[in-house]
Prior knowledge:
Elements (H helix, E strand, L loop, with lengths): L2 H17 L5 H13 L7 H4 L2 H4 L6 H15 L2 H6 L8 H18 L2 E3 H7 L5 H13 L3 E6 L4 E7 L10 H78 L3 H24 L1 H11 L1
Antiparallel strand pairs: 1-3, 2-3
Helix pairs in contact: 1-2, 2-5, 7-9
Amino acid sequence: MDPAQQKALDALQQYILLSKSATSPRAAADLITQATSSPNTYVFAELLQTPNIQSLRTAAPEYSRFLTLLEIFSWGTWEQYTSTPDLPQLSEAQSVKLRQLSLLSLSSSHSTLTYPYLLTALNLLNTRALEDLVISGIYGGLITAKLDPLAQRVDVSSVSPLRDLKPNSVPQLMAILDDWNRRCAGVLSEIEEQVSNVRAKAAEKKRREHEQEAIFNKALNDEIMKDSRNRGVGKRGAGDGETAASLEPDRGEAMDLDETFGRGGQRNAKRGGRFGGFAGLGKRLGG
């Protein structure tokens, strides 16, 4: 149970006990005044259902109007109080409480409330009185809200369950809940459809990525194989060239030999000049 609601129920218990001894219309009317003036009482359904309080419905008008007043404190608003004739005059404490309860009802149906709207609905004279009322509700745990003086509005984020249900309001409440349930089901269906679409797009994207990766890998492997074949042909060509070169004499070496033989011939010629007599002798002997 909400802490604020539990606190309000605990504060009401003493008045429920006192109602057992409020056997006269005056005593019952006085008890209603006390309960609605107490600073911690915000729910009144249990007190409203007690026999001595209900007996005011058939009492004289001067007392029965207190029962109507208690019903307004249970589920009504300030506008209902001002539009209902012959109701008892409210004290300052009662006026503040009924405006706070009216603020709860207004906040339950609207998350953003403008200053002009609240000033009219709560019959307040100026924004200072309105802000004081909202602040008292915030510190009292009735609502969670933020004041925006610049934008002239009240932003409500949560409301405590401190309003009683009006008699015969359960069917209407059930209709509201059924409508809310249908709208939630519709929203859930839309969310599931969007999730399915996102998953399908993600799967398609992943499939395309795999295809592109496969194409890239195949092209890369083909390029590697082609390069490997080209390198193999190059090596075989280089081997054949080396074999042919080994069979052919080195022209440089041949040139060196020619030069050597040439120089040798000159040296032999010189040597022949030195031993020319022997050469001639040989010719003569041969001859």
